[in-house]
C-alpha cells in the first residue's frame, strides 16, 4: 500500500503518471496545485474518483485555491492528518 | 543484487526529462550515491523519464554530462534492475533493443506491483 | 609546469583539456606520489572510464571496472589504496585530469 502525494494540476504529466500508478488499496493526498484535481464535476475529478484510492486533500491548500465543495469521498485533512497518513502507509511517493 | 545491512530496497522513480531541469541529474546522483554506499537500488523510468533512454544522446554542446553514457555505468554501481514504463516508451518510439542500458519494460499493472514491492520509494 | 590558477581549490584541473602526462606528474608530485607503470595503468583506465561513461567513478564503480578490465587481482580496493592512498577514486581522478567524482562524499 502506497501513500501517493500529488502536487500538480490536472493538466500535468504528474497527474496522468500518478493516476496510472495507483493500485487499489493505495491512498492519494492532494496538496498544493494538486487540490485542483478535486474541483467537483470536472473531468479530472471524475478520473480521480474512479482511481480506487482513498482520497484526501490538504485543507489550507484547498481553501487557498478556492476549492470549497469537494465530493463526499474526499476527506479534507490538515497537517496532523497528513502525518498520521504517513505513519499508516509504509511507502510514500511524491508526484510533482 | 547487493544486500544491505537493513536488507531494505529503494526504488528511485524518475519522471522528468533528462536535460530540461536539474531534477534528473539529482535523481541519478542520489541513486548512484546510495549505491556507492551499498544500498540496494532499483530505478524506474516513468512518463517523460523514459526519455533518459533515448539512443544517440550527445550533450557536449550544452555543457552537461551525457545521461545516456552515465546510465551505461549503472551496472558498475550494482544497480542491475532498471525498469521502464512501456506505454510511455512506445509513445516516444523508444525500443527495448536501442537503449543505453538494458531495461525491463513493464505495463501498468506491473508498475503498480513494483511500487508496492519496494521498501522505500524516492520520486524525482 | 602548469600555473596554480589552472587548478581549483581542491587541486582538480579547471579545464580538462589542460591535461597531459607531464601535468599528471606535476599533480602526483604535489600529492607525494611518484608515478610508476602501475599508476599509469590505472590513470589510463580512469581516462577510459571517463570517455565511456562521461563521469568520474565512485570507489565502488572503479573497483568493479578494474576487475573487468584488468582482472580480479587488481580489482580490489586494497590494490587501489596501495597506489593512491586515502581515497583512490578521488586522488586517481585528480591525477588523471578528470573532474572530482560526484559520489565521493
Would you spell out the secondary-structure blueprint of this structure?
The complex is a heterotrimer of chains A (96), B (124) and C (105).
Chain A: E1 2-6, H1 13-21, E2 27-30, H2 43-50, E3 54-58, H3 59-65, E4 74-77, H4 79-88, E5 91-95
Parallel strand pairs in A: 1-2, 1-5, 2-3, 3-4
Chain B: E1 9-14, H1 23-36, E2 40-45, H2 67-72, E3 82-85, H3 86-91, E4 104-106, H4 108-117, E5 120-123
Chain C: H1 21-30, H2 37-53, H3 59-70, H4 77-83, H5 88-95
Question: What can you tell me about this protein's structure?
Answer:
The complex is a heterotrimer of chains A (96), B (124) and C (105). Chain A has 96 residues and is an alpha/beta fold. Chain A has a single domain (2-95), classed as DsrEFH-like (Hypothetical Protein Ychn, Chain: A, 3-Layer(aba) Sandwich). Chain A has 4 helices and 5 strands; from the N terminus they run E-H-E-H-E-H-E-H-E. Chain A has a 5-stranded parallel β-sheet with strand order 4-3-2-1-5. The model of chain A has no long low-confidence stretch (mean pLDDT 95). Chain B has 124 residues and is an alpha/beta fold. In chain B, strands 4-3-2-1-5 form a 5-stranded parallel β-sheet. The two termini of chain B are 23 Å apart. Chain C has 105 residues and is mostly helical. Chain C has a single domain (4-95), classed as DsrC protein, C-terminal domain (Arc Repressor Mutant, subunit A, Orthogonal Bundle), CATH 1.10.10.370. Chain C has 5 helices and no strands. Chains in contact: A-B, B-C.
Concise summary:
The complex is a heterotrimer of chains A (96), B (124) and C (105). Chain B is α/β, with parallel strands linked by helices. Helices cover 29% and strands 19% of the residues of chain B.
Characteristic key phrases:
heterotrimer, A: 96 residues, alpha/beta, Hypothetical Protein Ychn, Chain: A, 5-stranded parallel beta sheet, globular, B: 124 residues, 5 strands
How widely separated are the two ends of chain C? 30 Å
Number of contiguous helices of chain C: 5
**Binned strand content of chain B:** 15-25%
What is the CA-atom radius of gyration of chain B, in angstroms?
14 Å
Question: What is the ordering of alpha helices and beta strands of chain C?
Answer: HHHHH
CATH architecture of chain B: 3-Layer(aba) Sandwich
Biggest β-sheet description of chain C: none
**According to CATH, what is the class of chain B?**
Alpha Beta
Proportion of helical residues of chain C: 40-55%
What is the CATH fold-level name of chain B?
Answer: Hypothetical Protein Ychn, Chain: A
Amino acid at each position: 500500500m502506497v501513500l501517493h502525494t500529488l502536487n500538480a494540476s490536472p493538466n500535468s504529466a504528474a497527474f496522468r503518471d500518478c493516476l496510472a500508478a495507483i493500485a487499489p488499496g493505495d491512498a492519494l493526498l492532494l496538496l498544493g496545485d494538486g487540490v485542483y484535481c478535486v474541483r467537483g464535476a470536472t473531468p479530472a475529478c471524475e478520473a480521480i474518483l474512479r482511481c480506487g484510492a482513498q482520497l484526501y486533500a490538504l485543507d489550507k491548500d484547498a481553501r487557498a485555491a478556492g476549492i470549497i465543495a469537494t465530493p463526499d469521498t474526499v476527506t479534507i485533512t490538515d497537517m496532523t492528518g497528513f502525518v498520521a497518513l504517513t505513519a499508516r502507509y509504509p511507502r510514500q511517493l511524491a508526484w510533482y | 543484487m547487493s544486500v544491505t545491512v537493513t536488507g531494505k530496497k529503494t526504488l528511485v522513480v524518475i519522471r522528468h526529462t533528462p536535460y530540461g531541469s536539474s531534477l534528473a541529474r539529482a535523481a541519478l546522483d542520489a541513486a548512484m550515491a546510495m549505491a556507492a554506499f551499498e544500498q540496494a537500488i532499483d530505478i524506474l523510468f516513468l512518463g517523460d523519464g523514459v526519455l533518459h533512454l533515448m539512443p544517440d544522446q550527445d550533450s557536449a554542446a550544452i555543457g552537461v554530462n551525457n545521461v545516456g553514457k552515465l546510465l551505461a555505468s549503472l551496472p558498475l554501481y550494482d544497480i542491475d534492475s532498471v525498469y521502464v514504463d512501456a506505454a510511455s516508451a512506445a509513445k516516444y518510439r523508444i525500443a527495448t533493443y536501442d537503449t543505453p542500458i538494458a531495461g525491463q519494460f513493464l505495463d501498468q499493472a506491473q508498475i503498480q506491483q513494483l511500487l508496492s514491492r519496494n521498501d522505500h520509494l524516492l520520486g524525482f | 609546469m602548469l600555473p596554480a590558477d589552472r587548478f581549483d581549490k581542491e587541486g582538480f584541473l579547471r579545464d580538462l583539456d589542460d591535461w597531459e602526462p607531464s601535468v599528471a606528474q606535476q599533480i602526483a608530485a604535489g600529492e607525494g606520489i611518484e608515478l610508476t607503470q602501475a599508476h599509469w595503468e590505472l590513470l589510463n583506465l580512469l581516462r577510459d572510464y571517463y570517455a565511456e561513461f562521461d563521469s568520474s567513478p565512485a570507489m565502488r564503480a572503479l573497483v568493479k571496472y578494474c576487475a573487468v578490465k584488468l582482472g580480479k587481482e587488481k580489482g580490489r580496493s586494497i590494490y587501489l589504496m596501495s597506489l593512491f592512498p586515502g581515497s583512490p577514486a578521488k586522488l586517481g581522478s585528480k591525477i588523471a585530469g578528470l573532474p572530482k567524482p560526484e559520489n565521493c562524499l
